[in-house]
Amino acid sequence: MLPPRSVPSERAPGVPEPEELWEAEMEQLRCSGAPVRGLPYAMMDKRLIWQLREPAGVQTLRWQRWQRRRQTVERRLREAAQRLARGLGLWEAALYEIGGLFGTGIRSYFTFLRFLLLLNLLSLLLTASFVLLPLAWLRPPDPGPALNLTLQCPGSPQSQPGVLRFHNQLWHVLTGRAFTNTYLFYGAYGVGPESSSAYSIRLAYLLSPLACLLLCFCGTLRRMVKGLPQKTLLGQGYQAPLSAKVFSSWDFCIRVQEAAIIKKHEISNEFKVELEEGRRFQLMQQQTRAQRACHLLSYLRVNILIGLLVVGAISAIFWATKYSQDNKEESLFLLLQYLPPGVIALVNFLGPLLFTFLVQLENYPPNTEVNLTLMWCVVLKLASLGMFSFSLGQTILCIGRDKTSCESYGYNACDYQCWENSVGEELYKLSIFNFLLTVAFAFLVTLPRRLLVDQFSGRFWAWLEREEFLVPKNVLDIVAGQTVTWMGLFYCPLLPLLNSVFLFLSFYIKKYTLLKNSRASSRPFRASSSTFFFQLVLLLGLLLAAVPLGYVVSSIHSSWDCGLFTNYSAPWQVVPELVALGLPPIGQRALHYLGSHAFSFPLLIMLSLVLTVCISQTQANARAIHRLRKQLVWQVQEKWHLVEDLSRLLPEPGPSDSPGPKSPASQASRPRSFCPGFPCPGSPGARAPPPGPSVVDAAGLRSTCPGPHGTPASARRFRFPSVAEL
Questions:
Q1: In Å, how far are 13, 649, 659, 673, 685 from 646, measured between CA atoms?
Q2: In angstroms, how far is CA 94 from the centroid of its own chain?
Q3: What is the 3-state secondary structure (H, E, C) of 589-610?
Q4: In the Cβ-directed half-sphere of 84, how many Cα atoms lie within 13 Å?
Q5: What is the mean pLDDT of residues 300-316?
Q6: Which PANTHER family match (predicted)?
Q7: Which of 345, 346, 349 is nearest to 434 (CA)?
Q8: Cβ pair 174, 429 in contact under 8 A
Q9: Domain boundaries, the chain
Q10: At what angle do helices 339-360 and 289-326 cross, to 10 degrees?
Q11: Helix (H) / strand (E) containing 518
């Protein structure tokens, strides 16, 4: 809307008229490609801009108007769907409350738990769509009678008296024996020959676990790249100043008291994280070379001791699994079935305590202590699962052992007629035991501890206090459970359903523990760094599950009397058979070439070129960021030069704002520059920084802004307050 004309006044030469400014602005809006919907104008002005952007003398076609209306409707529907998804999102209100009260670091754990739940539901959807529904719909023919194999075993099989003594339905549910003949385990699946049906259940069953692992890898990698911390890409000095967060963090739309309390806690947690990171960075910069060398030798000594403990722990897991599998005929067999999960849980409980004790003896800084302990906890957790898998393979598949039945059938057929079911039962028991352990710690350890601490007073109870909610420990627990689920995709296809139920219940159990029975961690950390760590550990668990599965699918003989691959030397042999049945010779030769070594060389060259392009692009982006940062500093310096010139030219008003000439003393007493509440890199540009120690502000930049009473800020030593002072 045009402003009303006013009485013409004297204007300096070169100053444009308001009409000229309005016309220039409208021309700029007409030529710009910014969407009209995002412009800060009224609807009447937006319609005018829309009309100005229409080509002159061209009549808008009906098809174009309909297409615009369709795009508008699609955009509005998409936005409405996004708002509905956010409103109906799983645990959104609970996540908002946790993030406000305890910070984004603890909230990232619960967000990660929800992400794992979605991954399990996706895996279950794939298995149900491509395996279970076709089995129910196609009704494949009966696979025929089982093969009557005469096993030449060194001793006759003995009965298991323990089974009759402890036979009850609950125990069979806990061990998985109650679901042996259901679709929960591999042995219940069976179809006829491949030529009898157009849809291959065998191929779907084989590719479903591989597809689940691939989708989980892509989702985890995408989330990992999206959650990279900014300091990894832009450096330690690139961060928002604290002053900007002080003046822009509050949400003035808040009208509810509870929301205001949560928002205040959230802002306080953000300041704690910022100040703690700045303090740690200053401590690292103050270390000398001699101190760093001593710390390096100390790290080496502690790591050697902890490495020996890890080796002993995984050896105990190996012998416990071997003893449990070799003593199947004893009366305590049913009790020995939970010996490997119990030993794994004991090792993962005592290991972090011993690691923390050894690290605390060296008097490391808190950040170094936590990182070192966490690294070895990750190694112990994944190594224990890896040793458990290897011990099962050595006992059941005779990996590294010489046995008569293994030479004839490819596995220990005397003790394990359906070895896939046996492996699935072991993974099922491990998953059940992990969840029962979570419930037991929440209600039998943490809850009584909170009740005793709140009920009694004294030095001992003050020292004991509530249990600290350790995010890394809880993350490692759910990552271990997810790794077990991935390991059992082939042997126990419906294990993701079981793990989804466990994750859903674990969310409410952990939320209750955090809000009622625990206290927040004393070490704050960013959600971006914690998310990156979570996804990295999850990728390691995915790799640990994918390697044994790939080896079993490609090289291990299937069971002779159960499952889908009874007549195949390995499950992967169904792929060449289907290729020979369903593809023409040209397609068979093409697939044969893609799977040969001749195709690996051009593939390697192409991947090398892609990697080279990506690295070059990353380096170019880093150089561009560096140039932009330098340009930003130059622009700030130029603006400060202009501010100084303007401060010299403008007259200074007196105490009573009376007109008249000002004294030279009042002009000389006025400072030549000023500093607002934000960092001013390179200011003032005309003066050199005063001698003495410089100040590093929250942004990591040198500041020479004068402080109150004319005292330059560089004359005062800046100190990051501790978290306790907040």
A1: 20, 5, 20, 9, 14
A2: 19
A3: HHHHHHCCHHHHHHHHHHHHHH
A4: 6
A5: 86
A6: TRANSMEMBRANE CHANNEL-LIKE PROTEIN 8 (PTHR23302:SF39), TRANSMEMBRANE CHANNEL-RELATED (PTHR23302)
A7: 345
A8: yes
A9: 21-52, 92-139+172-233+308-589, 590-632
A10: 160
A11: strand 518-519
∠ CA 246-249-255, nearest 5°, is 125
Partnered with residue 518 across adjacent β-strands are 467
Residue 682 tokens read as 């390179």
Distance CA 725, CA 363 (A): 23
Residue 545 near residue 483, CB atoms below 8 Å: yes
CB atoms within 10 A of CB 697: 19
Phi, psi of 293 (to 5 degrees): -65, -40
Sorting pLDDT into bands at 50, 70 and 90, what band is 435? very high
Partnered with residue 156 across adjacent β-strands are none
Q: Which DSSP state fits 710?
A: G
Cite the DSSP H helix spans in 327-416. Answer: 333-336, 339-360, 366-396, 404-409
Instruction: Quote the tokens at residue 621.
Output: 């982006």
Number of neighbours of residue 366 by Cβ within 10 angstroms: 11
Residue 262 tokens, joined:
């949560």
What kind and span of H or E run contains 219? helix 201-226
Contact at 8 Å (CB) between 476 and 537? yes
Q: CA-CA distance, 361 to 677, in Å (whole number)?
A: 44
Please name the residues in contact with 340: beta carbons below 8 A apart, sequence gap of 6 or more. 317, 320, 321, 324, 388, 391, 426, 430
Q: Write down the pLDDT at residue 402.
A: 63
Measured between alpha carbons, how far is 25 from 45 in angstroms, rounded to an integer?
12
Helix (H, G, I), strand (E, B) or coil at 472: helix
**What confidence tens digit (pLDDT) does each residue in 656-698 have?**
444 444 444 444 444 443 344 334 444 444 444 444 444 334 3
Q: Among 205-214, 363-372, 463-472, 690-699, which is the least confidently predicted range?
A: 690-699
Provide CB contacts within 8 A for 247, sequence distance 6+. Answer: 677
The amino acid at residue 262 is I
Per-residue pLDDT tens digits for 509-564: 999 999 998 887 766 666 666 777 888 899 999 999 999 999 999 888 888 878 88
Residue 570 burial (10 A CB sphere; 0-12, 13-18, 19+): middle
Q: Report how far residue 239's alpha carbon sits from residue 233's, in angstroms, rounded to the nearest whole number.
A: 11
Q: Which residues, at least 6 apart from 11, have a Cβ–Cβ distance to it below 8 Å?
A: none
Handedness of CA 409, 411, 412, 414 (dihedral sign): negative
The set of residues, in sequence order, having a beta carbon less than 8 Å from that of 112 and lying 6+ positions away, is 475, 478, 531, 534
What span, in angstroms and rounded, lies between the C-alpha atoms of 324 and 235?
52
Type of residue found at 551 = Y
Q: Token digits for 337?
A: 């079935």
Tokens of 527: 């959600």
Owner of token pair 């010299």 = 648
Q: Are 392 and 320 in contact (CB under 8 A)?
A: no
Distance CA 351, CA 343 (A): 12
Distances (CA, A) of 697 to 41, 229, 267, 480: 38, 21, 19, 42
Identify each DSSP E strand in 282-349 by its residue range.
Answer: none
Integer Cα distance of 18 and 2 in angstroms = 9
Structure tokens, 516: 């009622």
Q: Quick one: tokens of 326?
A: 């070799």
* Predicted confidence (pLDDT) per residue in 42-72, tens digit: 777 777 777 777 665 455 566 777 877 888 7
The set of residues, in sequence order, having a beta carbon less than 8 Å from that of 586 and lying 6+ positions away, is none
Distance CA 631, CA 210 (A): 49
Measure the CA angle with vertex 410, ends 407 and 413; round to 5°. 90
Alpha carbons 384 and 488: distance in angstroms, whole number: 16
Residue 396 structure tokens: 């059941």
